[in-house]
From TrEMBL:
GO MF annotation terms: transmembrane transporter activity
Keywords: Membrane, Transmembrane, Transmembrane helix, Transport
InterPro entries: MFS, MFS_dom, MFS_trans_sf
Span list, region Disordered: 1-65
Segments forming domain Major facilitator superfamily (MFS) profile: 75-542
Bilayer topology annotation: Multi-pass membrane protein
Composition skew (Low complexity), residue ranges: 30-63
Name under which the protein is recorded: Sugar efflux permease
Pfam families for this protein: MFS_1
Subcellular location: Cell membrane
Gene3D superfamilies: MFS general substrate transporter like domains (1.20.1250.20), Multidrug resistance protein D (1.20.1720.10)
Source species of the chain: Bifidobacterium criceti
Length: 543
């Protein structure tokens, strides 16, 4: 059965034998990927390799420094730029909210859909990556993603009303949903095994740093050139990335005809949209109840109904994926216990970082009276340090295995959030928040990519497109949830206060909401730490 040799390597790594689960994958893996990719349909996962009994198999330890081909590096850079621009606009738009609200005459509850709606589109399109990976060439998928993103940026740059800008964000979300998993598929399929951790660190650096840089770019850019030019300036960047990608991306395997599951896509869309709307309505209900306004109970009932719809739709989606021959995502990948827990930790880490991308700029402006530029610059030092250290974390994984680099850096991230919690109080300079955020980003930027690498390392090579789709899909959903939850924390605290009539009381209320938000994010990060610990315990247990 394909994947037994991979499991034998994982068992050897857990027992302290030479090599790690990621850096000692044998030539059997190469044989498996070629034999599996020759088929036009997904393999049957009713008996997943993760549950088979490992057999003895001779292993071949790869060279310590395998060469990374220049074309592979260019392909990763091109797809990485695509994903970077898409994610950058996500949090960049958060800083533009006050400007857009004033220009288009809309409220907070409407303008936030520029980010939430974008993330929902990305989370719905991303599960298609496994289908696209088997049906179309990597170059064709890349070209489609470039075209969608450029069209979205162009429409955004000339938008004259909110609906037009919303269409632009939807197009950008569709392009990012294709580009993000495409980058990881290229890394997982074509990277030298001994350099996988390093290249995954580079790839995940895009996911970790782009949302952190967004507020800085938005805050400085809107003051310098205006919000429309922020979108227009990114178009030439994507054109260059498109040319480089078309010239460098190669096709390592044949494609074939695979049936597309429209019913599965509809159920997944309903499940995700209903879930985010349920959170939004729940926040509205809490806000109404805390300010003694009417309608809170009815809104809470609507939120509960939407949550039920979401659960039913997602359970139906999972059941349908198990029944059909060509599902959008093979649910058999979740039978691996370590994979499940690493996935959960990864999703929570993403939610925390996207939550900070929303919370810190708004807290700085509304709670501490900072300018848009200062609010954006607060995140810059941590983002730059994170960009430098993300590949370092991957190199540490290649050398020491995943457990120590992940757990130690997550502990540092927890300390960073605790420091931020101490700094959010009256009389403290807003720049003090920056110190805690730097510590958080140092730990997060090294733990985040390694968590995905560790999760992908415990499943067979032939199921990695499905695993990649899982990580990328829930990553974007976590971003939407993180943004929504942080807006609820601030909105509930600000309820009953007015920025126009009593600025100081409104600022104090925002600071209280910010502290609640940081506590929530700290709890989520601790849970992510526990999830990774559980994954490593499961990796050491006999199968």
């Amino acid at each position: 059965m394909p994947g037994n040799a991979d499991q034998a390597e994982v068992i050897r790594a857990k027992k302290g034998l030479p090599g790690t689960a990621l850096s000692t994958m044998s030539n059997t893996m190469s044989t498996t990927i070629h034999s599996d990719s020759a088929s036009s349909s997904h393999p049957n996962t009713s008996q997943p390799p993760t549950q088979s009994t490992p057999t003895k198999h001779p292993t071949t330890t790869p060279p310590t420094h395998e060469r990374i081909e220049p074309k592979l590096l260019l392909a990763i850079v091109a797809t990485g730029i695509m994903a970077f621009v898409g994610i950058l606009t996500e949090t960049m738009t958060n800083v533009l909210f006050p400007t857009l609200m004033e220009e288009f005459g809309i409220g907070t509850s409407v303008v936030q859909w520029l980010t939430t709606g974008y993330l929902l589109v990305v989370s719905v399109v991303t599960p298609l990556s496994s289908y696209l990976n088997h049906r179309f060439t990597l170059k064709a998928s890349f070209a489609a993603a470039v075209a969608l993103c450029i069209a979205g940026l162009l429409i955004a740059a000339v938008s004259v009303n909110f609906p037009m800008l919303m269409v632009a964000r939807i197009l950008q979300g569709a392009g990012t949903g294709v580009a993000l998993p495409l980058m990881f598929n290229i890394i997982l399929e074509q990277s030298p095994r001994s350099r996988l951790g390093l290249l995954m660190g580079v790839g995940n650096m895009v996911c970790a740093i782009a949302p952190a840089l967004g507020p800085t770019v938005g805050g400085v850019g809107v003051a310098a050139v205006g919000w429309r030019w922020l979108f227009a300036i990114l178009i030439p960047v994507l054109v260059v990335a498109g040319v480089v990608g078309v010239m460098s991306i190669r096709q390592p395997r044949p494609t074939g005809r695979v049936r597309f599951g429209w019913g599965q896509l509809v159920l997944l869309t309903i499940g995700f949209v209903a879930f985010v709307f349920a959170l939004d309505r729940c926040g509205a209900a809490i806000t109404a109840m805390s300010s003694a306004r009417s309608g809170g109970t009815g809104t809470l009932i609507v939120a509960a109904a939407l949550l039920v719809v979401s659960i039913v739709a997602l359970m139906w989606f999972a059941a349908m994926c198990k029944r059909v021959h060509d599902p959008l995502i093979h649910m058999g990948v979740l039978r691996s216990v370590p994979f499940r827990w690493h996935l959960l930790a990864y999703v929570m880490l993403e939610g925390v970082t996207i939550g900070f991308g929303y919370l810190i700029p708004n807290l700085a402006q509304l709670g501490f009276g900072s300018t848009t530029t200062v609010a954006g610059l607060l995140i810059l030092p941590g983002a730059l340090l994170g960009a430098v250290l993300a590949p370092v974390g991957g190199a540490l994984l290649d050398r020491f295995g995943p457990m120590r680099p992940i757990l130690l850096t997550m502990a540092l991230a927890i300390v960073g959030i605790a420091l931020m919690l101490l700094m959010v109080r009256p009389g403290v300079s807003v720049w003090m928040i920056c110190a805690g955020y730097i510590a958080y980003m140092i730990g997060f930027s090294m733990a985040y990519p390694n968590t995905m690498t560790a999760g992908m390392g415990v499943i067979p090579q032939r199921m990695q497109p499905d695993g990649n789709a899982m990580f990328s899909t829930f990553q974007q959903l976590a971003g939407a949830v993180g943004t929504t939850v942080m807006s609820i924390c601030l909105g509930v605290a600000q309820s009953g206060y007015s920025l126009e009539t009593d600025r100081s009381a409104y600022a104090a209320a925002t600071q209280r909401g910010g502290r609640v938000g940081i506590v929530v994010l700290l709890i989520v990060l601790v849970c992510a730490f526990a999830a990774n610990v559980r994954a490593f315990v499961a990796r050491r247990m006999p199968r």
